[in-house]
Design a protein that fits this description.
With 147 residues, the protein is α+β, with helices and mostly antiparallel strands. 45% of the residues lie in helices and 13% in strands. The chain has helices spanning 52-81, 87-91, 99-123, 131-136; strands spanning 2-5, 11-14, 27-29, 41-44, 47-50. Helix 1 (52-81) runs antiparallel to helix 3. The longest helix has 30 residues, at 52-81. It is elongated and about 75 Å long.
Amino acid sequence: MKHYINKLNELFGFEEDYAEFVPEDLIEIPAKYKMDQLNFINLIDGKIKFNKDAYEKAKKDLTIAEYEKKTTAYLDDVSRSWKYDSMSDAITYLTSTNPQFKSEAEVLNEWRDKSWAQAYTIEAGVLPATAEEFISLLPAIPQKPII
């Protein structure tokens, strides 16, 4: 498929078999631009310009969103290993009258806070290549308290 852009920065795609139907006011976008880059192409003064800064920011934002989702799942998985439904569920026990539940909630709450603080610090810098590497940089899983 070949991709084209018009003066209004609207993107179009046409299969090569239909090239004869491409309107004359469209300019072909070079093949070097990938599908995920097409929204960052602009037609300025009849020339195709690629907004690399906007593309890199959007790409980082999407990566951060993915890593945050995986971090939430990781925190929930650890909470489940302590017999809670999720991290949110575990935290509800912060005011429990049961000393064991309250202690577990306090430890998980502190670890969650440290984990998110570290996650935001990592996100402000160079992101690891994978979500697994990202999670490996978070604080170690705490010991489950025994009361």
